[in-house]
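Submission checklist for the structure archive. All mandatory fields must be present; incomplete records are returned to the submitter.

[x] Identifier: Elongator complex protein 5
[x] Organism: Cephalotrichum gorgonifer
[x] Residue count: 344
[x] Sequence attached
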Amino acid sequence: MAPTAQEHARQRQLLLFQKLLNQREGASPLTLVLDTLEQPSGPIITEFALRAKKAAKAKIIYVTFGTLKRHPHADVHVSTRNKSLAAVRTELLRHYPPYDPKQKNPPQRALVILDALNPLATSAPDSLSAFLSNIITPATSLVAIYHADVPLVPPPHAHNEYAPHPLAVLTHLATAVLKLSALDQEIERHKARNRSVQEPEFGLAEGREGVLIGMRPQRRDSAGSGLVVDMEVRRRSGRGVTGKFVVSTPPAPERRKGALARFCLLEAHPAFAPEEEEEGGGAKEGDGPESTFDLGLTAKQRRDRDGVVLPYFDAQTDIGAGEGGRILYDMGREDDFDDEEDEI
């Protein structure tokens, strides 16, 4: 049996997400990862590094703008402390693998990870686009992290107030955008939507003073181990491919040994799967009175319902301009016709 169009689209989304994580053939020159305090980007960045090493044999270059800790899976660390953007670019190009423009496929690729673009967007927002464009080569791919819940304070001097927001510039430049959210929080929002109630807020969106209480211990449970990735990939043709995935990371000991995470579509996760209908469709005996609003009708009930002729059925057909939906009435003996009234 041939797969349906919906199954084909799901398989295409999974293959595209896997290709993006593996960084094969330069799937995305610039991937923008939007994380928050509720869901940091550490697990997905580790997945990028592990898969790029195993699948593409890529060289991992980690550029630190806002952290001092070295990434365990990076081959080269580049610190931007007290350095100009030109000096950072020069040091980056020195660590890039050699590339021959005559070769169609470079012998080795490099994955450059920028740990946080918020300091750069705050100190030099006008140079953000030029800096990212100058460090991208045909043999390299960039994965840049932007903290979406960190407020941006532009420099007081030499800043164009009419310039677009740095996040809007990054979103425009990126060929792939990944929005991260916590799995347990998405489950709670899904339950609220099913009950037709207001979705809960977490983290800074709660509007509470003091300590953030969004991250709770229940995330350690089996139902909440992982994160949700909202993917948007821009193709060369201009078309965008979107999809939501659940990435389940292995335990910490296995992760340190290089174990890869598993992922699936959001709708395929048990917590988001729709409720299965009972076989036969109709209600069983003892389930209560049947109703016309029951969505589980049998085939005979559907045929009987389609065969019912509604009253004034002829008036529902469009018989002329402005005459559709008119009222048809047959006068009886007891009716007194009044000439002054409009003609029926």
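[x] Structure attached
Curator remark: The mean pLDDT is 80. DSSP finds nine helices and nine strands in the chain.
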